[in-house]
C-alpha cells in the first residue's frame, strides 16, 4: 500500500487579543479508510474552541524521500505535517506529508504548516516503507585539522 487515507482535525481557538480574535491549528490526523464524505464536519463545539474533521487526504510515500521519513521516525515524537490555508471562515488542510524535507519546503515557501503526532498505525506503515527502501550513506572518514601536519611535511616528516 503506497497510500494511507487520512482525515485532518483542525481546531479554532478564540483569543482574548486586541489584534487577533482566533487562532487555527491542525491538532490531529486519523485514519479514514471507510470515509464516505470528506467534506469539513464540525466535531467539537465548545465555548472558545471548535474542531472540524476534514477528509479526502492520503499520505503518499516516495523512494527519494526515504531518508526524510527515516529522520522523522527517528525523532522523539514522529509527526504528520499538515499544510493548511485559511479559506473563508475555516482553515482547511491543503496537503499532508510525513517527510521532513517536504514540510521544510512548504515552510520555505511561506505556507502555514503544523506537525501533529503520528499515530502508531501510520508509524508502522511508514516504518515498513523505510525498512524496504532506505539505505543510509556509508560514513566517510573525516580528517581533522592537524596544526602540526604542515610542519611535518615541511621538515621531511619530522616535527
Strand order in space, largest sheet = 2-1-4-3
Secondary-structure-derived class: alpha+beta
- The end-to-end span amounts to 62 Å
Largest sheet: 4 strands, antiparallel
Strand content: 35-45%
Q: What is the number of independent domains?
A: 1
Low-pLDDT residue intervals, each spanning 5 or more residues: none
Shape descriptor reads globular
Radius of gyration from the CA trace? 23 Å
- Helical fraction equals 10-25%
Order of helices and strands: EEEEHEEHEHH
- Work out the number of β strands: 7
Protein name: DUF3305 domain-containing protein
InterPro entries: DUF3305
What does this structure look like?
This protein has 159 residues and is an alpha+beta fold. The chain has one domain (3-136). Helices cover 24% and strands 40% of the residues. It has helices at residues 66-74, 100-108, 120-133, 149-154, and strands spanning 3-14, 22-31, 41-46, 49-60, 79-87, 90-97, 112-117. The strands form two sheets. Strands 2-1-4-3 form a four-stranded antiparallel sheet. Strand 5 (79-87) and strand 6 form a beta hairpin. The mean pLDDT is 89.
